[in-house]
Write a structure and sequence with these properties.
By secondary structure, the protein is of the alpha/beta class. It folds into 2 domains: 205 residues, Aminopeptidase i, Domain 2 (Roll); 266 residues, Zn peptidases (Aminopeptidase, 3-Layer(aba) Sandwich). 23% of the residues lie in helices and 26% in strands. It has 10 helices and 24 strands. Helix 5 crosses helix 10 and helix 8 crosses helix 10. InterPro entries: Peptidase_M18, Peptidase_M18_dom2. Its cofactor is Zn(2+).
């Protein structure tokens, strides 16, 4: 599953930030797809302490945080009983999540204030039949998910994480998340002596034949145990028995009870702070778990006290989607009507008496969506890749993304409103447009905006090394994003009512 995310908790034991800097890091579970260590002590370097169970930022970990914050878990298959002032959430496929807090002054037809993000990142996924043998090596066949910088996956200490379906003792089927902490896999590069031109001609691996991790060597028949394992390996199992044995050990189940697996290859190196001033975050999957975390945390913190929603007329919402990296066209992606189905159910549920014509449509027209996805910070060694006057920098605030050809959903109106939130709270913002001679990426903003006609702004935290196995962003930008999102929830209603466009 492309979105089985792993989090870390950054808890500096001594002050490592500037005096004006960030309270958020005292409670910040920072994303690294596959490692769940708690990093508790920072001085000039991070130290890794004890491990916690596997969690998913788009589902399990977000679910844990929301539940702890007092949000009530709903099921899409049950009737909903919602009330003003209530806080709720549900998941779909354990990789898509929608959470919302209803203002106590809400009336049917009022809008939704939404922050949407995606939880998936480029990775390698095991093929349905992953077991293969080359020379004396046991190999694991993989397929590429998304547009990764695949050369960064070579010569890394890799492991596996994902979901497993296990048969229960009563005959039921259980959904389990698993993460193997120790290095299991490696994709070795070819020695320079056998590829003398690689530094001049470039590293151009064939993604089918060269990007295949090795997991073991063939077992010698030196013992009865080796003979038994060797016999098992010679069978035509979809996955190496050694691999399924590791999964059964991790899940404390019998190997024959493993019915189905959906696994990612993952880096084992934990997230950390870096740079001489500990000003950078070095981590996998900053794109886009950083946005996902800031959105969930902002929703929880903006509605945590009894009076937080007392003057709110709107509904505050977070929507986390899967499969953005491959186009969002899935049951758990932004292309599905998940969020809007939830909105309609909320409107209908809160309409205890006839609400008049077009209550849901009126609510959509009063709604606003912040599409949060990481942004391209200017690279000091490739500055010419950015338009001269739109070069976002680290530590300088959220980047508002513009594109005349609607690759981003930002308009002059939505950009103005989002910047007014920042201006009111003295938060910096930056702006980005791609060069005219380069193609422009996209995100979930245009997909959602065009799906139902909701006002949308696309924004993100500036980062480097996007889609690498190891990415970089500024520590301060995470806190700025969190504060901007929290301010959006708390003040957007008052700003929006001052502007009329179509009346």
């Amino acid at each position: 599953m492309a979105t089985i995310a792993r989090l870390q908790l950054f808890q500096p034991s001594t002050p490592i930030m500037k005096p004006h800097s960030h309270k958020l890091f005292s409670k910040f579970p920072y994303p690294n797809l596959y490692e769940t260590s708690r990093l508790r002590k920072f001085s000039t370097l991070c130290s890794v302490s004890d491990q916690t169970p596997p969690q998913s930022v788009g589902s399990t970990e977000a679910k844990r945080q929301l539940t702890a914050a007092g949000f009530q878990l709903l099921s899409e298959t049950d009737d909903w009983d919602l009330k003003p002032g209530g806080r709720y959430f549900f998941t779909r496929n354990m990789s898509c999540l929608v959470a919302f807090a209803i203002g106590e002054k809400y009336s049917v037809g009022n809008g939704f204030h939404v922050i949407a993000a995606h939880t998936d990142s480029p990775c390698l996924k095991l093929k349905p039949k992953s077991a293969s043998t080359k020379s004396s090596y046991l190999m694991v066949n993989v397929q590429t998910y998304g547009a990764g910088l695949w050369h960064t996956w070579f010569d890394r200490d890799l492991s596996l994480a994902g979901r497993v379906i296990v048969r229960g003792s009563d005959g039921s089927f259980l959904h389990k998340l698993v993460k193997v902490k120790r290095p299991l896999l490696r994709v070795p590069t070819l020695a320079i002596h056998l590829d003398r031109t690689v530094n001049n001609d470039g590293f151009k691996p064939n993604l089918e034949t060269h990007l295949v991790p090795l997991i073991a060597t063939k077992l010698e028949d030196s013992s009865q145990e080796s003979k038994e394992k060797g016999s098992a390996l010679s069978s035509k199992a979809a996955h190496h028995p050694l691999l399924t044995q590791i999964l059964s050990d991790e899940l404390s189940c019998h190997i024959d009870d493993i019915i189905s697996i959906e696994l990612n290859v993952c880096d084992t190196q934990p997230s950390c702070l870096g740079g001489v001033n500990n000003e950078f975050i070095f981590s996998g999957r900053l794109d886009n778990l950083a946005s996902s975390y800031c959105a969930v945390r902002a929703l929880m913190d903006s509605s945590e006290t009894p009076g937080s929603l007392s003057n709110e007329h709107a509904i505050r919402m977070v929507a986390l989607f899967d499969n953005e990296e491959v186009g969002s066209n899935s049951v758990q992606g932004a292309g599905a009507p998940t969020m809007f189905q939830a909105m309609r159910r909320i409107v209908d549920c809160l309409a205890h008496e006839p609400a008049g014509e077009g209550a849901y449509q009126r609510a959509i027209r009063q709604s606003f969506l912040v599409s949060a996805d990481m942004a391209h910070g200017v690279h000091p060694n490739y500055m010419d890749k950015h338009e001269e006057h739109h070069r976002p920098e680290l530590h300088k605030g959220l980047v508002i993304k513009h594109n005349a050809n609607q690759r981003y959903a930002t308009s002059g109106v939505t950009s103005f409103l989002f910047k007014e939130v920042a201006k009111l709270h003295n938060l910096p913002t930056q702006e980005f447009v791609v060069r005219n001679d380069m193609g422009c990426g996209s995100t979930i903003g245009p997909i959602i905006a065009s799906g139902v006609g909701i006002r949308t702004v696309d924004c993100g935290i500036a980062q480097l090394s996007m889609h690498s196995i190891r990415e970089i962003c500024g520590k301060e930008d995470v806190d700025i994003a969190y504060n901007h999102f929290k301010a959006f929830y708390q003040t957007f209603s008052s700003i929006d009512r001052k502007l009329n466009v179509d009346t």
